[in-house]
UniProtKB/TrEMBL annotation:
Family: Belongs to the glycosyl hydrolase 13 family.
Cofactors that this protein relies on: Ca(2+)
UniProt keyword annotation of Mitochondrion present: no
Listed name of the protein: alpha-amylase
EC code: 3.2.1.1
Ubl conjugation found in the keyword field: no
Native organism: Favolaschia claudopus
Annotated stretches, region: Disordered: 513-534
GO biological process: one example: carbohydrate catabolic process
Length: 600
């Protein structure tokens, strides 16, 4: 049952207004991605869900609405849900990506009003709704699979398989709505050569058992139908952003018009490890999922022998993007990428490694760089499913436990990112940069005021823990940095004088004593106190550092016992906040001899 207050609110909100319509308004958000059928049921059931069966398990839009506290409490302010359109019955898929009718919502997930209620509930919390859409193809069960004697009255089509043999498959095009003519689809052929862009765009996905007829997006009438559909859907359901499936399978020019007609932020899936290729779609859509870096991320942290330099050498997609055309709606908007570790198409990261330190290093990545953080549901509960369908587990079987380490980690990462955005008005626009380290098992990423220390040495090596070197000039001597993942203080210029705080609590007397000891050490060490700061790894865990002055002392903040910034009530225009912004602004203008930004 919905709480009475929420039920009344939703009853009085027939149409949910769109809260955001641009990339700039999405840049500060973090996204929780879920598969509707696997996140929550409407009746809070413990219904079993065997992912190997690839069938519906009972998740619904009403179920999501009832569990928004769970998502918001982890610090997420946007929810990406799987496609809503009617899917093919008779297939063993429950994820929403096998559409047959664009205009009709799937009754499997509830009513259209349930979806509007979800949108309204998100907006009432100041959260955004991102909708996954598929426009490249439809799904159709073939009328026959091998023999011409099985053909019905439906159109008969010859499909060329990747092996070159011809398969007679009958597609009942009138079942596909609103595009119900054979001419609305490309001539049938399966994609065999992914280096041939024409073939990628105009041949079919799927196979002879379940072909996916490829929409003819060169036909002007088809294009207008799709453009009108996205505009109507965004308005009808109060959609704030759109994630687009299989972007590389449709010509780039189509997406420019699609993005304009959507009128909201568009995030495209371009599944490739080629950064230049992925970046070529930026400008046609507002952002793309950063798949090229994801491949490097897996290489870096899937094992203790991973290649950390791979992720460090990965090019920035925005730096490779072509300027948007004069007609593009994204001409004056920031170029965004979606940074992720897991999603519904890839194996969950824990299926690669059981090392808790490697897992934690990888989970930190999406929150500390330039990308828009995206977390796939179940990651916080430690789900370990491999490839599809094993990675689409039912979340209700976890009990939505809030005391899991992954839940706490995501809450901290969301919290420190928000603090960094608040403290530094240039945070989102300032590109992150790598700081060279001498040990091959360490890398260091700076995005002021955040400094993130990664290692892939792992949790099980008790004989060796590497050391990071924070160069002189990156922070002013005497600055207290807080590792928010362990609530541990690091004094800049102390040569590695760290203050561990059990449980994140320290008494005033103890703090004063440590400050006095630190000052004595600085005087004793002289010039060395002004030099680089050494930070020793502990258990192979990553560290996310931020000046204590930029953390809030409020009880629900990040490491509040070590924070020296304003409390929750202090506004950006207040003396404390203004002072912090001024310090960060001055720091961004100073470049030391080592070529690193100095926070003064």
């Amino acid at each position: 049952m919905l709480p009475i207050a929420l039920a009344l609110l939703l009853a009085l909100t027939p149409i949910s207004p769109v809260l955001a319509a641009s990339a700039s308004e999405w840049a500060s958000k973090s996204i929780y991605q879920l598969v509707t059928d696997r996140f929550a049921t409407s009746i809070n059931s413990s219904t079993p869900c065997d992912t190997s069966q690839r069938t519906y398990c009972g998740g619904s839009w009403a179920g999501i609405t009832q569990h928004l506290d769970y998502i918001q409490d982890m610090g997420f302010d946007a929810v990406w849900i799987s496609p809503i359109s009617k899917n093919l019955d008779g297939t063993a898929y429950g994820d929403g990506y096998w559409l047959t009718d664009l205009d009709t919502t799937s009754s499997r997930f509830g009513t259209a009003q349930d979806l509007k209620n979800l949108s309204a509930a998100l907006h009432a919390r100041g959260m955004y709704l991102m909708l996954d859409v598929v426009v490249n193809h439809f799904a159709a069960l073939p009328q026959n699979s091998s023999s011409s004697s099985l053909l019905s009255t439906a159109s008969k089509t010859s499909l060329t398989s990747p092996l070159g043999d011809l398969l007679d498959i009958s597609i009942n095009y009138p079942d596909l709505l609103p595009l119900s003519n054979e001419a609305d689809f490309h001539p049938a052929c399966f994609i065999a050569d992914y280096t041939n862009q024409t073939e990628v765009e105009q041949c079919w996905l799927g196979d002879e058992r379940l072909p996916l007829p490829d929409v003819n997006t060169e036909d002007p009438d088809v294009v207008e139908t799709l453009y009108k559909w996205i505009a109507d859907m965004v308005k009808e359901y109060g959609v704030d952003g759109v994630r687009i499936d299989t972007v590389k399978h449709i010509r780039r020019a189509f997406w420019e018009g699609f993005t304009q007609r959507a009128g909201v932020f568009t995030l495209g899936e371009v599944e490739t490890d080629n950064a230049t290729y992925a970046a070529s779609y930026l400008g046609a859509v507002d952002g793309v999922l950063d798949y090229p870096t994801w491949y490097k991320l897996i290489m870096a942290f899937a094992s203790v022998s991973g290649n950390l330099s791979a992720i460090q050498d990965a090019p920035s997609l925005p730096s490779l993007a072509s300027p948007p055309s004069s007609s593009s709606s994204s001409k004056s908007q920031p170029v965004l990428t979606g940074s992720f570790l897991e999603n519904h198409d890839q194996p969950r990261f824990p299926s690669f490694t059981h090392d808790v330190a490697l897992r934690k290093n990888a989970m930190v990545w999406p929150f500390v760089g330039d990308g828009l953080p995206i977390v796939y549901y179940g990651q916080e509960q430690g789900y370990e499913g491999g490839g599809d369908p094993s990675n689409r587990e039912a979340l209700w079987l976890s009990g939505y436990k809030s005391d899991k380490p992954g839940v706490a980690l995501l809450k901290t990462l969301n919290g420190v990112r928000k603090q960094a955005i608040k403290a530094n008005e240039s945070f989102l626009a300032t590109p992150a940069h790598w700081i060279t380290q001498s040990e091959p098992s360490t890398i260091m990423l700076s995005k002021p005021p955040l400094l993130t220390l990664f290692t892939n040495v792992g949790a099980n090596d008790s004989t060796y823990q590497p050391t990071w070197r924070i160069p002189a000039g990156l922070y002013a001597p005497g600055t207290t940095l807080i590792d928010v993942l362990a609530c541990r203080a690091v004094a800049v210029g102390s040569g590695g004088n760290e203050t561990a705080v059990a449980g994140g609590v320290v008494s005033e007397a103890e703090g004063a004593g440590k400050d006095a000891a630190r000052e004595k050490k600085k005087k004793r060490d002289g010039a060395s106190a002004e030099g680089e700061t050494l930070v020793k790894a502990k258990g192979g865990m990553p560290q996310v550092l931020i000046p204590a002055s930029m953390l809030s002392r409020s009880g629900d903040g990040v490491c509040p016992a070590l924070a020296t910034g304003p409390g929750e009530g202090a506004g950006r225009e207040g003396t404390g906040a203004a002072s912090m912004q001024s310090r960060v602004g001055r720091g961004l203008a100073v470049v030391g001899a080592l070529g690193v930004v100095a926070l003064l």
